[in-house]
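Hi everyone,

Forwarding the result from last night's run.
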Amino acid sequence: MAYRQTAAVEARLKDNRSRILDAARTLVSEGGWQEAQVASVAAAAGIATGTVYRYFPSKAALFAEVLSAVSQREVDVLTAIAETDDTATGRLHTAVATFVLRAMRDPRLAYALIAEPCEKEIDEARLTYRAAISEVIRSIIASGQSAKEMRSDIQPDIAASVIVGGFMEGLIGPLSPLSRHQHPDNENYQREVAMLADQIARLACASVAIPSATIRQISRRRS
């Protein structure tokens, strides 16, 4: 007769796995990939180091899942924005600004997710979710083109790649552990972050906006 796990055992295994992932995420948020070692994760989760390897075959596999879980939440947030009834330009601005604001809430974690050197397995997960974010932005641009809100002479997938690459590159300096300007509880810092988010979002929207000369030509034709 095949062995079947009881509900209690399944719950305990699931709980252990969740505790490992939560501990790993916290350690990455505090010190990045390099500082988050398996032994540290085990200690933070209150389990033996060997137990971690029962759930994850390697450190890279563990942290690739941490990256995937956190990144999926960001994809879900952007997808919800993309599905609102706002104009395409409004949705693009909100999506980019929201990504920036959320990243700046936890700069050390966001830096690890976006730019910190890491193992190949973690980087592959990073590229997967960067592509997923680009797809959300592409869908907004495509809808903007269909509604004649955005320029039609560019390919949505290329524009999305440029925009996502641009706002992630624009965040590297502000998110870097070397930055001396990260004071999340400071009102001036919060204003600076809001300004940063708005400026990056405005640049993203400007890159796909219909040129003003074209708008004037369209207006003349209609008149």
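The radius of gyration is 21 Å.

Cheers,
N.
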